[in-house]
Amino acid sequence: MNFLHHERTTLEALLPGLDAALARHPLAELETAPSPAIAEFRAAGGPALLVPTRNAGIGATPLQAVRVQRAVGARCPSLAVATTMHHFSIAGLVRTAAYGDGMEGLLLEAIAKERLLLASGFAEGNTGQNILAPHITAGRTEHGRVLLNGSKMPCSLSRSMDLLTASVVLTDDDGVDRLAIAVVPAGSPGLEVRPFWRSPVLAGAESDQIVLTDVELDPAMVVVTRVTADAVPDELNLAGFLWFELLLTAGYIGIASALVERVLDKAGGPQDPTPFLVDIEAAMLSVESVARAMDTEEWTDGLLADALSARYAAQDAIARTTTACQAALGGMAFIRAPDSTYLASAATGLTFHPPSRARMGGPLREFLDGGPLRIG
Question: Which residues form a coiled coil (predicted)?
Fold first, then answer.
């Protein structure tokens, strides 16, 4: 079947064997914690997807990355959600490198070569908050080590992570507060993972709470940038939101696509596939359009507005598509094959990620009237 052909071809080219490995597991097994999908992702080299080739990574383009996420979402919704946050952390490190001291490159190379998984302690675009704004406080001990306190919830990959990456504010030798990226090994004393995610839907993403209590780090594990804490460059914040919105949206489109695939594969399936196909394909084309632009255009407020439009359009497309697919699969599928009901429920998750459409109404209106785009 040609449906999802581009996405699965891209996934196979960049992460050979992952699609087949995921397909061997029942969906219910993939979606529970601990999920075998995370080990399959690691084995296929997934942690290196967005690491630049100069740092021993795969160096996927934005277009390739969103296609990979859709293909992953179509096999394992939890893995798509969880790895979005890993990739988002990698993209943040890559972008921060322009403001850092060179340590980022060594860290990225280690991640690629050792296939390390990153949990994200960044803000993820929480309402009214800079995406790089710290959840975690940082200070210095009398011996010069860095001391971290705080928590992050939910935090995907909390139980499978090798490293936690988090933005912090740290005072430099001149007394200036600067943005820094702390890299915390999973086994650090004072780091605790607590239960948080109660829903069975997307449980395989391991989105629990991470708590840091007087966690001491060697200063070498903290990348201090030249950016002052009160002047985070728009380009860093913008890059974070662009990657977050596109990767997340592509993953959820993949979840809905899994339902479409079941309808198209159904014995005596529809002669006219357009009621199931057109909305979801159009949503993906919108995401791909923004991803292509990331390779050829300056990353501006306008491009972020396009990404948000693609994301909110995808929410509507997913809602229409999942409803149509469930009706086409029929009541017996609802009763006897819980996969379809699960996928429809998981696909609605895109609606709950910040920034919500309701909160962005005013900021988008202001942007259309000529103002800067702020995240509400």
Answer: none
CATH number of residue 262's parent domain? 1.20.140.10
162 in the same domain as 70: no
E-strand spans in the chain?
A: 118-120, 136-140, 146-155, 163-171, 177-185, 191-194, 208-217, 222-228
Residue 199 to residue 197: CA distance in whole angstroms? 6
CA 71 to CA 78: how far, in whole Å? 12
User: Which range has the worst mean pLDDT, 30-39, 107-116, 263-272?
Assistant: 263-272
Q: Which of 196, 228, 260 is the last residue of a domain?
A: 228
Of 92-101, 149-158, 169-178, highest mean pLDDT:
149-158
Cα 37 from Cα 24, distance rounded (Å): 10
pLDDT value of residue 156 = 94
Residue 146 lies in a domain: yes
The dihedral built from the CA positions of residue 101, 105, 110 and 116, taken in this order, carries a sign that is: positive
In terms of Cβ atoms closer than 10 Å to its own Cβ (0-12, 13-18, 19+), residue 352 is exposed
B/e letters for 72-109, b = 16+ CB within 10 Å, e = fewer, are: bbbbbbbbbbbbbbbbbbbbbbbbbbebbeebbbebbb
Mark which of 49, 80, 114 sits at the end of a domain. Answer: 114
d(CA 343, CA 337): 11
Those residues with Cβ within 8 angstroms of residue 365's Cβ, 6 or more apart along the chain or in another chain: none
- If you compute the radius of gyration of the chain from its CA atoms, what whole number of angstroms results? 20
DSSP code, position 214: E
What is the C-alpha to C-alpha distance for residues 359 and 361, in angstroms, rounded to an integer? 6
Burial 175-194 (b: 16+ CB within 10 A, else e): eeebbbbbbbebebeebebe
